[in-house]
């Protein structure tokens, strides 16, 4: 069974971000360990967490006019989750299992890429994440633009045609 474990390499030294990432791991592990009949509520909790998690980071990015590719990545992942949720509701767990397998690698890439770049940027400009306020720029100071998107791969198990084993029974 796939699982995620918090470790020092995931720490971005931004307390509310790191706390949110620990919560993602807890929600993910609960969904990954859930029996099929318990999967939907566990998956709903993971989606609910992910919505709040991404809203938090999106709010920081909006406050500092951060490049949009990180937000777009959040939107893509949530769209995949919501699409798969509809299939789970119909009793089809095939793509949900694929997603559960792929999320750990996606999460570690995202935390070490886009989220790390965001945390570094927020720290470097003295952004107050608790008050969501931006320190005014000093004379001649510029905001950074490193969004970390070069290291990202969105999990996209959205096509049953591509995901179905070749020897599966014909429909
Ligand atoms: Fe994050
Ligand atoms: Fe993020």
How is this structure best described in words?
By secondary structure, this protein is mainly α. The chain has a single domain, classed as Four Helix Bundle (Hemerythrin (Met), subunit A). The chain is 58% helix and 0% strand. It contains five helices and no strands. α3 runs antiparallel to α4 (94-124). One fe (ii) ion (FE2) binds next to α2.
Short description:
The chain is an all-alpha fold. The protein has helices at 15-33, 39-63, 69-89, 94-124, 160-163. It has one domain (15-134, 145-163): Four Helix Bundle (Hemerythrin (Met), subunit A) (Up-down Bundle), CATH 1.20.120.
Distinct helical segment count: 5
Under the CATH scheme, the architecture is Up-down Bundle
- List the ions, cofactors and other small molecules found in this model: fe (ii) ion
Strand residue percentage = under 5%
Could you name the key traits of this structure?
mainly alpha, 58% helix, 5 helices, 171 residues, Four Helix Bundle (Hemerythrin (Met), subunit A), binds fe (ii) ion
What's the topology here?
Blueprint: H1 15-33, H2 39-63, H3 69-89, H4 94-124, H5 160-163
Helix pairs in contact: 1-2, 1-4, 2-3, 3-4
The structure holds fe (ii) ion (2 copies).
